[in-house]
Amino acid sequence: MRTATRLTGLMLRRSTDANRASLALPVVAFAVVTALTLTVLGGARFFFTIEGPTAPLYQSLAALAVTLLLIPLLTLCGSAARLSARRRDQHLSTLRLLGAPTRTITTMTVLESTVLAAAGTLLGVLGHLALAPLLGLLTFHGERLGAGHILLGVSGTLLCLVGLILMASVSALVGLRGVVVSPLGVRTRQSAPRLSWARAVAVVAALGAGMLAAQALRIDQGTLSIVVGLAVSFGLTMAVLNLVGPWVLGVVARRQVRRAGGRFTAERLLAARTVLDNPRAAWRQVSGVALTSFVAVFAGVGLAFTNVLAAGGSTPEDDLLLADLRTGIALTLVISFVTVAASVAVNQGADILERRELFTSLERIGMPLDGMDRARRLAVLSPLRVVALGSAAAAALLVLPLTGTVLLTDPLSLGTIAALLAAGIAVVWVALRATSPLLARVVADA
Amino acid sequence: MHSTVAAPPVLTAVAVAKSYGPTVALAGVSLQIAAAESVAVMGASGSGKTTLLHCLAGIIEPDAGAVTLAGPQGALRVDTLGPEGRSRLRRQHYGFVFQQGLLLPELTALENVALPLLLDGVDRHRAEAEAAHWLAQLGLTGMEERRPGQLSGGQQQRVAVARAQVGSPSVVFADEPTGALDSRTSEQVVTALLQTTTGAGRSLVVVTHDQRVAAVCDRVLELSDGLIVNEHVNRRRAA
Q: Which of A157, A239, A440, B114 has the most CB within a 10 Å radius?
């Protein structure tokens, strides 16, 4: 134990600039996951304090929003864990080759993952505290939320932190199998086959954590069954989307490979080939937006249509509900895109650090930095556009007669959703641009 | 020591110096490389051979001295070009082969070879036709659509050699091109490299630790502490 602790401390302290960046990325990712998870759960808890005839509706919608946001948040959490594991594997497999015992390796793995996740989650709590006053300005159910209603509370916060740190440790231990069983396999970057039971365990663990969280949030059994029902139905929808999504991205990328031409042929070709090389990874990065966009347009059209029908004859309570639903849709879309943007930034940062030799070689054969950046941007934004706009178009088509009516009678509602989708894509673009200095530094340092 | 050749030089370095902080990597190296000549640069680790290659190739800027390329449009001072100019120079006049090949894993062999031309704005159809020609020259016909991961180490390195030839560069730079290969594959790759460079009228500068690679080059320069301390012309090659 002492050896493992000492070695872990040494590796964390003796980092090069690039290694420090690879240490910082999972910490930042865990911080973003924590801040957003605490804020989303804290905000959702407010709706379970509402009383009156509309309370069940509000609570169901809050549960729906949480379920929608959990998908991108879990994706981001997975990215953070994978990133942390990639960094560690390089060191641990070398130690394993030098003859370090399994117990030392295991302890080091758990220690490093826990330290990084703990640092990230603690920063995330600060982020949650900073976000609370901002989101507290929103008005729901006729009253201003206030920072107090966003803050999750001590017990809920602690439970969330423990859950996230536990997830980091468990995923590190699962990833460790490659190092323990086949050190050469990891050292030479061959990917070991993934075990399907690990996913099943993760799902069961997530459900268990959800039940515990529900109890901590004092959610009653009736609402809990709604949440479970929603989670199951959305889980099934996501399962179908997970099957179809990568295939669609692959088809689009194959077409882009064939048609790449014009001024930026090399960049377009490289971006399309990157997606085609691993459509599942491209999908995983943007899948959270699929369901959010679909629901946003579906619900947005429904709301606008209700608005049109009720024009002049609605009660103040109806108006209140409609306004709240609009705010809720906008908020869910914004958080979903912010999570995807964070996930993209973390993955791109890791990709730059992992493929630094390749980027350097591209620079040497005369590819300008702008070109490399353009290829990276296209490889993320193209699938994002396909997913966001495709899901939105699918929802609009599904309720086509209503979409047409709303377009004619209340275009502002649909325009707002379209503007939010465009702003979301812009946020992801900004996240991509934020990783450009890292690419420039990696190439310059070579 | 000032290295010279009888044929008109395509690349000339005069008193090139480069330091990294207090460490002197190059202490004023002068040399000339003739058209269609192959030059091996040897030396112990830290002797400055990779820094010399980087200065000649316009990858880094020397602190002092001059590097001149006799290009088709006249003499071009490599050391005075800005980052964009050097980038263009590397695309249009130079070819590179690295130790690990460093091909893009997502692209096919054909696309990897065509990449320098595509970056230079050449039409895709033309770029891929030229890439296919070079792959055929290197005995890789039928492997155009394979990804680097589906090729052996030797095949990957031959794809890298093909990539260095597209666009007809004046000089090809190779940094330990056989460092990751077994002796038999090394021989095949070096033969291919020489045939496609000096055999086609291009110059080749190869940094290597491998005596067998040096033995098949026209000239061998030996570096120590940032200076050329020995130079010899291989008799077999000279003959």
A: B114
